[in-house]
Specification:
Blueprint lengths: L3 E6 L6 H17 L1 H4 L3 E6 L5 H7 L5 E4 L16 H7 L3 E4 L2 H7 L3 H13 L3 E6 L7 H21 L7 E4 L13 H15 L9 E4 L8 H4 L5 E4 L6 H20 L1
Parallel strand pairs: 1-2, 1-8, 2-3, 3-4, 4-5, 5-6, 6-7
EC number: 5.3.1.1
Protein name: Triosephosphate isomerase
Subcellular location: Cytoplasm
Length: 259
């Protein structure tokens, strides 16, 4: 597996034409950057639903494409919903589940996150499972809360015998949309505990822990020892910023190889 996993959620910031233009720039970047070509970094991109088919075509072979949400059900009279079955049918590989904005703006509960995680895994999708504490805590307490959320989210899938990779995106709620991410020492202290737990999930081999919450260029080098990558939002809206983060990944990976 690549050493670093770098994801970008475009949320609802871009229109379709802007999404297409951004993805074309990222595709060119990914095809030529040594971090991707040499297998040091894996990319995934999560656009809005309407842009998924175009983005799948543009990023074919250079990045995994995903959806920002999915329904708990697989089919039926659920106006406005999109099922995991359809997301997988289109060719997506990942789907975001349980983001703090879904919880805060749309009232998603632990029960809903649990059902959506199960829906993702039963259709062979990798859930990008967003976890994090609502208010700043001591790192050990924040990690315990994240582990509780992980175990709760996986409960139905585990009981049904689902298997697959899970990407845990640690996003402290208080850092989302902030000018700066959480402090590197705090991120490392929380993620070290969470990653130890995630690597012990025998039913979900190959799972990873990445950091989101105002993640930016320069952060990867400060936290790389305790995270598997970054989950980026607005700080990746300029392809040059993603280029800079890939430079960091390449430098870290090659330095590690030399060591």
């Amino acid at each position: 597996m690549p050493r670093f996993l770098l994801g970008v959620s475009l949320k609802m910031y871009f229109g379709h034409a802007q999404t297409v233009a951004w993805c074309r720039a990222v595709a060119e970047l990914a095809r030529t950057h040594a971090a991707v070509r040499e297998g040091h970094a894996e990319l995934f991109v999560i656009p809005t639903y309407l842009s998924v088919p175009a983005v799948l075509e543009i990023l074919d072979g250079v990045a995994v494409v995903g959806a920002q949400d999915l329904a708990t059900a697989d089919s039926g009279a659920f106006t406005g919903e999109v099922s995991g079955a359809e997301i997988a049918e289109l060719g997506c590989g990942v789907v975001e589940v349980g983001h703090a904005e879904r919880r805060g703006l749309f009232g998603e509960t632990d029960d809903i996150v649990r059902a959506k995680t199960h829906a993702a895994l039963r259709h062979g999708l990798v859930p990008v499972l967003c976890v994090g504490e609502a208010a700043r805590l001591a790192p050990a307490d924040a990690a315990r809360e994240c582990i509780r959320q992980i175990e709760d989210a996986l409960a139905s899938a585990r009981a049904a015998g689902c298997r697959g990779r899970v990407v845990v995106a640690y996003e402290p709620h208080w850092a989302i949309g902030a000018a700066e991410p959480a402090e590197p020492a705090y991120i490392r202290a929380v993620c070290a505990r969470v990653r130890k737990h995630v690597r012990g999930l025998v039913d979900f081999p190959g799972s990873a822990v990445i950091y989101g919450g105002s993640a930016r260029p320069g952060l990867l080098a400060e936290v790389a020892g305790d995270v598997d990558g970054l989950f980026l939002g607005r700080f990746a809206h300029r392809p040059e910023a993603l280029d800079a983060i890939l430079d960091e990944a390449l430098s870290l990976a090659t330095a590690g190889a030399r060591a």
